[in-house]
Task: inverse folding
């Protein structure tokens, strides 16, 4: 059964009691299909940053490569969309974010976006 993990920045308590930063690593080690989700909480005025979630996984038992997979090809597989998205292969949608460094580093910036093979934004964010 695939698992989609709640954001690590969620406040523990209630159904989040016992939450662990190591969950993604433990599931990957057990060969359980897993993906990370961003989330939204009313007291936070923005959607959670998915790259932060992958970075936290990479710091807590998941390799850097697997951390990126948790938000790309692994997520596509969990959703049944891996034939069309999730990795760079001929015939798949060519939607790509370009970075000026390691995408899991907080100080790295997105410097371009390609959608359907066309550069649509080259502003640094």
Result:
């Amino acid at each position: 059964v695939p698992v989609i993990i709640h954001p690590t920045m969620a406040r523990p308590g209630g159904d989040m009691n016992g939450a662990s930063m190591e969950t993604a690593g433990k599931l990957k080690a057990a060969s359980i299909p897993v993906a990370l989700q961003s989330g939204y909480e009313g007291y936070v005025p923005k959607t959670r940053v998915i790259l932060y979630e992958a970075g936290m996984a990479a710091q807590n038992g998941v390799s850097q490569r697997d951390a990126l997979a948790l938000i790309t090809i692994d997520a596509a597989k969990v959703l049944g969309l891996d034939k069309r998205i999730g990795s760079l292969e001929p015939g798949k949608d060519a939607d790509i974010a370009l970075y000026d460094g390691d995408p899991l580093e907080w100080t790295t910036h997105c410097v371009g976006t390609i959608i359907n093979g066309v550069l649509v934004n080259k502003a640094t964010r």
Notes: The radius of gyration is 15 Å. The beta strands are 3-5, 34-36, 96-99, 110-115, 118-121.
